[in-house]
């Protein structure tokens, strides 16, 4: 299937896409992905080094003064740009989507625990900071060399959420315990991170700025996740089309039956609509595109539908866990659990645009 025309890419963007596709086709097929999940890191470190170091993909959106290319806004460190350091966002209670403002107003809803207990607490000690508590469902939390932790401070009366940096490059960080957890999608590793009098560095002192930065980051991340989901949905669809075109039943290809054609056509429309929304969101000017969560909602829905139909149309082999169709199905289900659900992504997008009334913050 040929995709409908979209806004033209620049020559540089086309070269980035071609290079990345070639690399992933070589190093990130179904078998390679399964092998990578069995490593201690849960991913292929050599592939990441090539993507971030040799190709500079990790620094595309970072400012040039931080070692990036300057294609988009961010505030990080040079080692994150060149890929020699990885970072994970740790928020308590498994509330990643809300902390990033994807499914609600992160300034209005309690997502990081109580002011006296629960979540992660921060306390000023001898001119520094110490963290106490636990964060669950931290993506790549067991292997990241730097943890960005959302924690409460100020006690019950002046409770506020701030961000702290915890350096975790070696196993000697005092009071830090990280445990990799079993997940539905083995390619999206998660961990439980515990803090027991763990030294941390304060990053930003104003709660409004911190929460606003998290929300802007969430809207930008939503576009990247949407692009990933659209790509996965299109790949699952292409693999399914190839399968029904070669598999025969009653003396003719399965794909020649009208009912199958209709199902595939519906999926194609859904995937390309999600692709168009993602392209529009990616081209929005300024930090944190407002249409990012809406694009993510459509992309996750398209991936879920395509992955489910892929299993059905692959027949008996599609129902075995070992089949590659389940890699797409697990990613669809896992991402919606982490960043959704879709109905809340849409509801938040409607609030921000004032679709049903006053525009939300």
How is this fold's topology laid out?
Layout: H1 11-27, H2 30-37, H3 45-54, H4 78-81, E1 87-90, H5 96-99, E2 120-125, E3 128-139, E4 146-153, E5 160-167, E6 176-181, E7 190-203, H6 207-246, E8 248-249, E9 252-253, H7 258-282, H8 292-313, H9 325-339, H10 342-353
Parallel strand pairs: 1-4
Antiparallel strand pairs: 2-3, 3-7, 4-5, 5-7, 6-7, 8-9
Helix pairs in contact: 6-7, 6-8, 6-9, 7-8, 8-9, 8-10
Summarize the entry for a quick read.
The chain is of the alpha+beta class.
Features:
single chain; 361 residues; alpha+beta; seven-stranded mixed sheet; two-stranded antiparallel sheet; 10 helices; 9 strands; 43% helix
How would you characterize the overall build of this protein?
The strands form two sheets. Strands 1, 2, 3, 4, 5, 6 and 7 form a seven-stranded mixed β-sheet that branches. About 35% of the residues are buried. The protein is built from ten helices and nine strands. A hairpin with a 2-residue loop joins strand 8 and strand 9. The radius of gyration is 22 Å and the shape is globular. It has helices at about 10-25, 30-35, 45-55, 80, 95-100, 205-245, 260-280, 290-315, 325-340, 340-355; strands at about 85-90, 120-125, 130-140, 145-155, 160-165, 175-180, 190-205, 250, 250-255.
